[in-house]
Design goal:
About 50% of the residues lie in helices and about 10% in strands.
C-alpha cells in the first residue's frame, strides 16, 4: 500500500514539471527505485536483475513517473537492432527541457543528442581527426603523458591513489592536447566530468555540471575564434570558419571531452583491478605482442562496459518491436552492460573475464550505428600504451586495500571508481 502511494506521489510531482515545452529534467531530485537497476552494480558486475530481464523480456517496460513510456533493451541482438535503426529513432532530447532551471535546451548539443542531417554534417567535420593515421601523431604525446603520470604515481609512494595519479590525468591531458586546450584549474574542471554522469541526486546536479562545463568550452571557442590554437578546435575554425557556429563547435568539443575523458579514466582504473587479480592476466599485457594486448583490451572493454546505457532513443512512429507495440515518442534505453554480458554472443560464461574469449559478435562498449563513439580508437590507443607501461614499471603492483573495500560508483551512466589505492 505504502509503495503504491509513494509511486502515485512521485508521478504527481513529475507531472507538475511537465510544461508545454516538455519536462524540466534538471529539476528532478529523485530517480524512481525501479529505474536504477541499469545504473547499479554489485562490485564490478551488473545486477542479477539485468540478466533476468534479458532472459525473459526482449523489451522491458520501466516504471517512470513521466507522461511518456520508456522501455529497456538488454539483449545483444536487440540492442544492435535498435542502435542501427537510424530512421526509426531520434536522440534529440531538447524537447524535454522547459527552458529554466540550471540547464536549458541550449545546453544540449554535440553528436550524441543530434539527429541527421545535422549529425551527419557535424560528424563529417570531426571524423578526420579520429582516423588511425591522424591519431598516430598523438602516440608520442600520449606516451609522454603516461610516463609523467607514472612518475607522479611512483613519487606518491605505496598507498598512492592510482585513480587520481594515473587513470584520470592520462585521458584528461590527452583530450586537452587533442582539442588544443590549456586549463589552469584542471582539478576543478575534471570534477565536472564526474558530476555530469552522476545520477545519485537526480537531474539537477548533472545538468548543472553540463552548464558549467559547456560554458567553459564556449569561452575556449570564443578565444580561439580570435587566435585558433594547434588542436582540433583551432583546426575546425580554420577549415570551417563561420560555417560552424560557436554552439555547434562547443558541442563537438564537449562531446569529445566528456566522451573521451571519464570513460577512459574508468577503464584504466578498472582494468588495473582486473589485471592485478591474477599474475597471468598481468603477464599477458606486460609481455604480450600487439595482438595479445589488443585481445585483452577488447575483453576488458566488453566485460566492464563503462558506458552503461546508450543515448536514449525516441521512437519517431508507432511500431511493433520484439512483440511489443511501441508508440511514437516512447523512449528506448539500451543497456550496453547487459547486452555485452549476453550469453548468446559471449558464451555461457559471459559474466567471467576471459582474455582468450572469441565472442560470436563484436562488443557494444562503444555503442553501435551512427552514434558509435567517435573516439573509440583513441581510447584503445590510450589503454594500449598505459596498461603495458604501468605493469612494466611496477611489476609488483597490487591493491593496497582488499577489493571488497573499494567504493565503486553506484548510480552513474559511466561506471567507475573515484579512488584506487595501490602499492608496488
Amino acid at each position: 500500500m505504502l509503495r503504491r502511494l509513494r509511486s502515485k506521489v512521485l508521478a504527481s510531482v513529475a507531472r507538475r514539471h511537465v510544461s508545454k515545452r516538455g519536462i524540466d529534467l534538471a529539476s528532478f531530485s529523485f530517480i524512481p527505485e525501479t529505474t536504477k537497476a541499469p545504473l547499479q552494480r554489485i562490485g564490478l558486475d551488473p545486477l542479477p536483475r539485468m540478466a533476468q530481464i534479458r532472459a525473459s523480456e526482449p523489451l522491458h517496460r520501466l516504471d517512470l513517473p513521466f507522461d511518456f513510456t520508456a522501455y529497456l533493451v538488454t539483449g545483444h541482438e536487440q540492442a544492435r537492432q535498435v542502435l542501427t535503426a537510424r530512421d526509426a529513432y531520434s536522440t534529440d532530447i531538447r524537447h524535454l527541457f522547459s527552458g529554466d532551471g540550471p540547464a536549458t535546451s541550449d545546453d544540449i548539443g554535440g553528436l550524441g543528442f543530434t539527429d541527421p542531417p545535422v549529425h551527419t554534417r557535424l560528424r563529417k567535420i570531426v571524423t578526420p581527426e579520429f582516423t588511425m593515421r591522424r591519431l598516430a601523431r598523438l602516440e608520442p604525446v600520449i606516451e609522454g603523458i603516461v610516463d609523467r603520470a607514472l612518475d607522479d604515481l611512483e613519487a606518491a609512494g605505496p598507498g598512492a591513489d592510482l585513480a587520481q595519479e594515473l587513470a584520470f590525468p592520462i585521458p584528461f591531458n590527452t583530450i586537452c592536447a587533442l582539442l588544443g586546450l590549456d586549463y589552469e584549474d584542471t582539478q576543478a574542471f575534471s570534477k565536472l566530468g564526474s558530476a555530469r554522469f552522476d545520477a545519485t541526486h537526480g537531474g539537477a546536479a548533472a545538468f548543472g555540471a553540463v552548464s558549467a562545463q559547456r560554458e567553459f568550452l564556449f569561452d575556449a571557442v570564443a578565444r580561439q575564434r580570435k587566435e585558433p590554437g594547434p588542436g582540433l578546435i583551432g583546426q575546425i575554425i580554420r577549415d570551417e570558419g563561420e560555417l560552424i557556429s560557436d554552439v555547434d563547435l562547443a558541442g563537438l568539443a564537449d562531446g569529445v571531452f566528456t566522451g573521451g575523458y571519464e570513460t577512459t579514466a574508468g577503464m584504466i582504473a578498472l582494468s588495473t583491478i582486473m589485471l592485478t587479480r591474477d599474475p597471468a592476466y598481468a603477464e599477458l599485457v606486460r609481455s604480450g605482442d600487439r595482438a595479445t594486448v589488443d585481445r585483452v583490451i577488447e575483453e576488458l572493454l566488453r566485460y566492464f562496459s563503462v558506458v552503461q546505457v546508450a543515448f536514449p532513443r525516441f521512437a519517431k512512429q508507432d511500431m511493433d518491436l520484439f512483440g511489443t507495440r511501441v508508440k511514437a515518442g516512447d523512449v528506448l534505453l539500451v543497456s550496453l552492460s547487459a547486452a555485452n554480458r549476453d550469453p548468446a554472443v559471449a558464451g555461457p560464461d559471459a559474466d567471467t573475464f576471459d582474455p582468450f574469449r572469441v565472442p560470436a559478435s563484436g562488443h557494444l562498449a562503444f555503442g553501435h550505428g551512427i552514434h558509435r563513439c567517435i573516439g573509440a580508437e583513441l581510447a584503445r590507443m590510450e589503454l594500449r600504451i598505459a596498461l603495458p607501461k604501468l605493469l612494466n614499471r611496477f611489476p609488483d603492483l597490487r591493491l593496497a586495500v582488499p577489493e571488497a573495500e573499494l567504493e565503486f560508483r553506484q548510480l552513474s551512466f559511466v561506471f567507475g571508481i573515484e579512488s584506487l589505492p595501490v602499492t608496488f
